[in-house]
UniProtKB/TrEMBL annotation:
Domain FAD-binding: residue ranges: 3-327
Record's keyword annotation contains Protein biosynthesis: no
Pfam families named among the record's database cross-references: FAD_binding_3
SUPFAM superfamilies: FAD/NAD(P)-binding domain
PANTHER family: MONOOXYGENASE, PUTATIVE (AFU_ORTHOLOGUE AFUA_6G14510)-RELATED
Record-linked InterPro entries: FAD-bd, FAD-dep_Monooxygenase_BioMet, FAD/NAD-bd_sf
UniProt GO molecular function: FAD binding; monooxygenase activity
Species in which this protein is naturally found: Bradyrhizobium canariense
Entry protein name: 2-polyprenyl-6-methoxyphenol hydroxylase
């Protein structure tokens, strides 16, 4: 089969790897001239690490990652609201790991043996019939494929070309992300909740920590705030352990700003075109399941294609298998976002009394194999 994967992020690379495990190969294209991952950390819950193991890459990833054994939630003043022993919860599924996103993508890319990746190339048009898809690229070249996979993220060009849904929807929150020196001694998943604001820090190696900051700004569209917004003043009422990472932020540190968005579609398939990962079901990052859902998607799609059935039936079977699990994650993300937006006192009470049970409720279905 001739297979085109549009997008060479975690979703596209994981699919190429899963296909190679089953005797297939693919051509990947990526519109960026190089992987754009500076300033981005990646937290992988146990189900995501299980998917990495099934891709045969656990040892390659683990050697570059930090084990995350605990989750701590503080209020803005530094009082502990909840502690989750994540190592115990995920035992039997997979450890929780954290690392720079680029390290994860590098491991996936290096693992490919037969598939090819072309950076700086994008899809311009797509015409399909019962026999396949004719794709024209941005340089005017064209090629025919048996099917095309859109793994090109929240703002998927493939999704647009085959009319599978509209734009990603702004969910009322904007965020800043960066990697800094771990001067606060952060050794686990560490969040602080303030009034309409969140700070999160996770170690990604022995010296660095990934920092995420968000602010709720309701409205129909994301405000166009500059990436260098004064984070110190926006979070000045926060204390340790996370705020010192912002207070000591160097002017040279790259900071990445963007809206939090979601993609919810009625269908992920149009003929011989299928969507994968964020292109199909992007959601808020509060469950840290973007990479995990994408890699699970990849394994399931490759498995269905390897059965030797009709391609369109394989694509449909993939969506039917994945839909209930993805819907659960998206619905839990919405519920958790609503809980975070509660006033400080009732939110603190909920987390102290029910935080552990809410965590288990959100993640327990993901302990099961997909």
């Amino acid at each position: 089969m001739r297979i085109l994967i549009v997008g060479a992020g975690i979703a596209g690379l994981a699919l190429a790897k899963a296909m190679e495990q089953r005797g297939m190969e693919a051509q990947l294209i990526e519109r960026q001239r190089e992987v754009q991952t500076a300033g981005a950390g990646l937290f992988l819950p146990g189900n995501a690490v299980r998917a990495i193991e099934q891709l045969g890459l656990f040892e390659d990833v683990a050697v570059k990652a930090v084990p995350i054994k605990r989750q701590l939630i503080f209020d803005a003043g530094g009082k502990v609201l909840n502690t989750i022993e994540t190592e115990d919860f995920w035992r039997g599924c997979g450890p929780c790991l954290s690392l720079p996103r680029k390290e994860m993508q590098d491991v996936l890319k290096a693992s490919l043996r037969r598939s090819t990746t072309a950076f700086g190339r994008s899809i311009a048009s797509l015409v399909q019939d019962s026999a396949g898809c004719l794709v024209t690229f941005d340089d005017g070249a064209a090629a025919k494929y048996d099917f095309v996979v859109g793994a090109d993220g929240m703002h998927s060009k493939v999704r647009e070309l085959v009319s599978l849904g509209g734009s990603a929807r702004y969910v009322g929150t904007v965020c800043w992300r960066f990697i800094a020196k771990n001067t606060s001694g952060i050794d686990c998943w560490t969040a602080m909740l303030g009034s309409g604001r969140t700070l999160l820090a996770i170690p990604v190696n022995r010296t660095d920590v990934y920092v995420y900051a968000d602010i709720a700004i309701p409205g129909d569209g994301a405000p166009d705030l500059p990436p260098d917004s004064p984070l110190r003043s926006l979070f000045k009422d926060f204390s340790g352990p996370v705020f010192p990472l912002i207070d000591g932020l160097s002017a040279e540190t790259p900071i990445h700003y963007g809206p939090i968005e979601e993609v919810r579609l009625k269908d992920w398939i149009n003929g011989r075109v299928v969507l994968l990962g964020d292109a199909a079901h992007g959601c808020s990052p509060n469950m840290a399941e973007g990479a995990g859902m994408a890699m699970e998607d990849a394994l399931v799609l490759a498995e269905e294609l390897s059965r030797g059935t009709d391609i369109t039936k394989a694509l449909r079977a993939y969506m039917e298998r994945r839909r209930p699990r993805v819907d659960w994650v998206q619905n839990q993300c919405r519920a958790r976002d609503k809980m975070r937006s509660l006033p400080a006192l009732p939110r603190a009470a909920v987390l102290r009394l029910f935080g552990t049970s809410l965590y288990k409720r959100s993640y327990s279905p993901l302990l099961k194999s997909f």
